[in-house]
Design a protein that fits this description.
With 771 residues, the chain is an alpha+beta fold. Among the domains are: 109-235, Alpha-Beta Plaits, CATH 3.30.70; 413-448, no CATH class; 469-604 and 645-671, no CATH class. 60% of the residues lie in helices and 8% in strands. The protein has 22 helices and 13 strands. The protein has helices at 2-5, 19-32, 52-65, 69-116, 158-168, 205-217, 229-285, 308-322, 350-358, 369-378, 380-397, 425-430, 463-496, 500-530, 534-539, 543-552, 567-618, 626-635, 647-671, 673-698, 702-744, 761-766, and strands spanning 10-18, 36-37, 147-154, 174-179, 184-185, 192-193, 195-202, 221-223, 289-291, 296-304, 329-332, 418-419, 422-423. The strands form four sheets. Strands 1, 2, 9, 10 and 11 form a five-stranded antiparallel β-sheet that branches. The protein has a four-stranded antiparallel β-sheet with strand order 4-7-3-8, with helices on both faces. A hairpin with a 2-residue loop joins β12 (418-419) and β13 (422-423). The radius of gyration is 47 Å and the shape is elongated. The two termini are 33 Å apart. InterPro entries: V-ATPase_116kDa_su (IPR002490), V-type_ATPase_116kDa_su_euka (IPR026028). It is found in: Membrane. Essential component of the vacuolar proton pump (V-ATPase), a multimeric enzyme that catalyzes the translocation of protons across the membranes. Required for assembly and activity of the V-ATPase.
Length: 771
């Protein structure tokens, strides 16, 4: 039951692992989500830690994957090399395919040109272009003969190419070009390119050199073209065969590349998880000490005491997986360091715990709307519980969309006020507004409505006045009962920490103060409800007047009629007890704490002398192992000396606590009136929506009214959901959250400490913690 009210019992232990087993053991603890590692290398730079190279390697793999086990690393590097090789081969093949395609179209266009130019004889050309990739030069001993150069150029560069060619060669060349009717694709950029085929006739070696330079400047590709038609046809056939072979090779290369990519895609998620786990494990190992002489990893861990057996089993499994022969050693370490806070949750309670973890008591006023909405709608059962409680309060107030439900039959009747079908003359004379008078026999049955507000109040002119008083009292009762429960919970804290002084000097006077004043107020409210009498109630004052006179001892006021026998004596006793409880809380505890401190100071030298003598006598009988030496070194400076006792600080702290408690009982009770205000606002909004929206549709008649009621009901439903359910529901959620957090929990809750953050693969993969 202790974990219901506070953190589970935590244990600080030292963990000794062999170096070869450390990785597997830490991996098993990461799956367990129950162990928090302390940083034993806080003074060591992060770049100088033992496993920094492994962390960098994992980060490199993460960059490759962008959201792998060591086996996955090898596979990934091999696969990356294969994909890169396939990409390079595919680019080379497509580049070769582009060149052969251009050559194919060039040979076709050249053949067409020579066939149309019938006046040019085949022997008119002397340049031999039978080579596939090189152009033979014309012999210098044969002047007066024409040569030609054929190639391909980008279409947008053709105009500038033609102008420069004409100017440099001074018009001594003949240029013929034709557009390629098939668009091509750049093998690197994958963009579509449009090109033209050209053929240039010239005379002499000097012009040929100039043409070559101009072609290079405009990035035009020159292809060899045979001068004989038979050779051109033969080359064209060879090009077609090579293109078909290239198509087959490119298709096979693309299929191989797709298989590699599909394999990578299928294992991508697994590799990404493995890389993140590896990185987290090495980060955790960097928090540990490495004993080079003993070849072991030393860690300090926090974990729940109740899960010790599970943690030991996980360490044994990690040792078996690594093949290590040395079993891990887990030894508890005594320390005065405050343990982390851990509250075990399930699927239901996790939502409530997230409120505490996300905001905390001190951060309540810093909540932003995004966090509120996220918490509100992710914890869907919070909405369910609020809905159930809303139905419950609706039944108490007998209010459903501003209308009452007459389930059990009203306890009030108007029939006794009639005589022979007309109003009783006496009733009319004494009651001119014809109100339901409980003094008239038969009007009130004497039995209250079984559950909730009697539906007859929905017709009363003083409905708002009655409900206002009723809801205010219900809010006060709920608030005081919850605050008393909070004070009772503080008793469990005092018992758990074995502080009898707090039980006698804090809990008891707190209970006396709140029960004598506010508990008595609740009693008076319920007593007046239960002991209702028509004649007595007509002259009896309100509960508020009784409460004020209780403080002022104003019992001589004739309007202050007692509700029960000896009420004045009882109220006087309660006021005196409440006044006595204040100095009880304020004065006694500081002096007792000072006396205890002086007593402890007198006993300390005697205890220290006895312990020193014992150590000196037994020092020869003890041997210290290397593991114990490491343990002592790690914890040598952890034990903190007790703070020096300062009576002034203790007295001021107790005075602040007393004043806060006494004033808080008043202010917190007033804060619970938020529930009253919310209820009234909700009821009035509901009544406005019914009267001004839905009531309009119900007044329509005929087919038009039938259609209109559907339209008006849609408007009514939208406004009801938007205003009453969402806006009012969120407002009620926030007010109830504050009442629970501040007014209730300040009686017992202590939010000191720090959150238990275990090494967890689940939290790391979900992104809820930093690695």
């Amino acid at each position: 039951m202790a974990s219901v009210f506070r953190s589970e019992e935590m244990c600080l232990s030292q963990l000794f692992l062999q170096v070869e087993a450390a990785y597997c053991c830490v991996a098993e603890l990461g799956e367990l989500d129950l162990v928090q590692f302390k940083d034993l290398n806080m003074n060591v730079n992060s770049f100088q830690r033992k496993f920094v190279n492994e962390v960098r390697r994992c980060e490199s793999l993460e960059r490759i994957l962008r959201p792998s086990s060591e086996l996955a690393v090898t596979i990934l590097e091999k696969l990356e090399g294969e994909i890169q090789e396939a990409n390079h081969n595919q680019q080379d093949l497509k580049k070769n395919f582009l060149q052969l395609t251009e050559l194919k179209h060039l040979l076709k266009k050249t053949q067409d040109f020579f066939e149309t130019e019938a006046n040019l004889a085949d022997d008119f050309f002397m340049e031999d272009t039978s080579g596939l990739l090189e152009l033979r030069t014309s012999p210098a001993s044969m002047p007066g003969k024409l040569g030609f150069t054929a190639g391909v150029i980008d279409r947008e560069r053709l105009a500038a190419f033609e102008r420069l060619l004409w100017r440099v060669c001074r018009g001594n060349v003949y240029l013929k070009f034709s557009e390629m009717d098939v668009p091509l694709q750049d093998p690197v950029t994958k963009e579509e390119i449009k090109k033209n085929i050209f053929i240039i006739f010239y005379q002499g070696e000097q012009l040929r050199q100039k043409i070559r330079k101009i072609c290079d400047g405009f990035r035009a590709t020159i292809y060899p073209c045979p001068e004989l038609a038979a050779e051109r046809r033969h080359m064209l056939a060879e090009v077609n065969v090579r293109l078909e072979d290239l198509n087959i090779v490119i298709t096979q290369t693309e299929s191989h590349r797709q298989r590699l990519l599909q394999e990578a895609a299928a294992n991508w998620h697994t590799w990404a998880i493995q890389v993140q786990k590896m990185k987290a494990i090495y980060h955790t190992l960097n928090l540990c000490n490495i004993d080079v002489t003993q070849q072991c990893v030393i860690a300090e861990v926090w974990f729940p005491v109740a899960d010790t057996a599970r943690i030991q089993r996980a360490l044994e499994q990690g040792t078996e997986q690594s093949g290590s022969a040395m079993a891990p050693i887990l030894t508890a370490v005594p320390s005065k360091t405050a343990p982390p806070t851990f509250n075990r949750t399930n699927k239901f309670t996790a939502g409530f715990q997230n409120l505490v973890d996300a905001y905390g008591v001190g951060n309540y006023r810093e909540m932003n709307p995004g966090q509120i909405w996220s918490t509100f709608f992710h914890g869907r059962y919070l909405i369910l519980l609020m809905g159930i409680f809303s139905v419950y309060t609706g039944l108490i107030y007998n209010d459903c969309f501003s209308k009452s439900l007459n389930i059990f039959g009203s306890s009030w009747s108007v029939r006794p006020m009639f005589r022979n079908g007309t109003w009783n003359d006496h009733i009319v004379e004494t009651n001119p507004v014809l109100q339901l008078d409980p003094a008239v026999p038969g009007v009130y049955s004497g039995n209250p409505y079984p559950f909730g507000i009697d539906p007859i109040w929905n017709l009363a002119s003083n409905k708002l006045t009655f409900l206002n008083s009723y809801k205010m009292k219900m809010s006060v009762i709920l608030g005081i009962v919850q605050m008393v429960f909070g004070v009772i919970l503080s008793l469990f804290n005092h018992i758990y920490f074995r502080k009898a002084v707090n039980v006698i000097l804090q809990f008891i006077p707190e209970m006396i103060f709140i029960l004598c004043l506010f508990g008595y107020l609740v009693f008076m409210i319920i007593f007046k409800w239960c002991q209702f009498d028509v004649h007595v109630s007509q002259g009896a004052p309100s509960i508020l007047i009784h409460f004020i006179n209780m403080f002022l001892f104003n019992y001589d006021d004739p309007s202050n009629r007692p509700l029960y026998k000896h009420q004045r004596e009882v109220q006087s006793f309660f006021v005196v007890m409440a006044l006595i409880s204040v100095p009880w809380m304020l004065l006694i505890k500081p002096f007792i704490l000072r006396a205890n401190h002086r007593k402890a100071q007198l006993q300390a030298p005697m205890v220290q002398g006895d312990s020193t003598e014992t150590v000196e006598n037994d020092s020869s009988n003890h041997s210290v192992t290397s593991a114990q030496k490491v343990s002592g070194g790690a914890h040598g400076g952890q034990d903190e000396q007790e703070e020096e006792f300062n009576f002034g600080d203790v007295f001021v702290h107790q005075a602040i606590h007393t004043i806060e408690y006494c004033l808080g009982c008043i202010s917190n009770t007033a804060s619970y009136l938020r529930l009253w205000a919310l209820s009234l606002a909700h009821a009035q909004l509901s009544e406005v929506l019914w009267t001004m929206v839905m009531n309009i549709g119900l007044r329509q008649h005929g087919w038009g009214g039938l259609i209109g009621v559907f339209i008006i009901f849609t408007v009514f439903a939208v406004l009801t959901v938007a205003i009453l359910l969402i806006m009012e529901g969120l407002s009620a959620f926030l007010h109830a959250l504050r009442l629970h957090w501040v007014e209730f929990q300040n009686k017992f809750y202590v939010g000191a400490g720090y959150k238990f953050s275990p090494f967890s693969f689940k939290h790391i993969l979900d992104g809820t913690v930093d690695e």
